Amino acid sequence: MRFIETFEFWSFLDSVMSVTTAFVLGTLIGAERQYRQRVAGLRTNVLVAVGAAAFVDLSMRLTGNDGAVRVISYVVSGVGFLGAGAIMKEGANVRGLNTAATLWGAAAVGACAGADMLAEAVMVTLFVLAGNTLLRPLVNVINSAPLDTRTSEATYAIRVTVADDAAPAVRDRLTRRLADAKFPVGDIETEEVSDTAVDLVATLVATSVDRPALEAVVAAIRREPDVLHVSWELSTGGVE
Q1: Whole-angstrom Cα distance, residue 56 to residue 39?
Q2: What is the mean predicted confidence (pLDDT) over 193-217?
Q3: Do 50 and 110 form a contact (C-beta atoms < 8 A)?
Q4: Whole-angstrom Cα Rg for the chain
Q5: CA-based end-to-end distance of the chain
Q6: Residues near 218 by Cβ (< 8 Å), separated by ≥ 6?
Q7: Binning pLDDT at 50, 70 and 90, where does residue 50 land?
Q8: Are residues 161 and 90 in the same domain?
């Protein structure tokens, strides 16, 4: 059997240490995520850490350090796709970025463990945990401070409800009015409301917005023909 010819006890023990370390450290990271009921919890973070460790360890045993470097680059991009699945857009808010970043950190921990850099794996784990726990009070303090929309970067969304057949014409007029008011339009999406009406959602991104000017634009749009309803909302990028 090929296994009998290639099995080396000490190399196997080294792999066990790498994967076990990734498992334990991934558990620490995942337990904090599970406690906070995030999308990617205990099992996901453990599997990411163990998988990264296994791939890096395998490549080191087969092709040495050069092969490990190539595999680590694939791990980084692969976990990026995995993290994208945890990111959700809710209106003008984006949730899950912190969860995706934590998965990236778990992969880094696993890669360090797989490369036999166990002390470095522990260090990265401590920093990931510190980012998710020790920085939380600071985030709460910053978020509780009064928001000055004149100096903060904010996302404004104007929602215009129109008749379905009038949507193209209203979209053009909406774009022109926002451009005349010097409000840059990031995107205008169409959302179906009913069989006869749709919502045109214009997303504005600006570092400084004059509220009275925005209210004036909304009032002007409200007087446009075929417009059934107009509203706007402000988001500072609610990131999980």
Answers
A1: 26
A2: 76
A3: yes
A4: 25
A5: 51
A6: 158, 230, 231, 232
A7: very high
A8: no
Same domain for 159 and 56, yes or no, is no
Residues 16 and 127 in one domain: yes
pLDDT for residue 239 is more than 50: no
131 and 176 inside one domain: no
Position 64 scores a pLDDT of 78
Same domain, yes or no: 26 and 70: yes
Domain holding 58, by residue range, is: 8-143
Asked if the structure places residue 2 within a domain, the reply is no
Query: Is residue 151 predicted with pLDDT exceeding 70?
Result: no
Q: Is the pLDDT of residue 89 over 60?
A: no
Buried b (16+ CB within 10 A) or exposed e, 191-225: eeeeeeebbbbbbbbbeebeeeebeebbeebeebe
pLDDT, mean of residues 162-168: 85
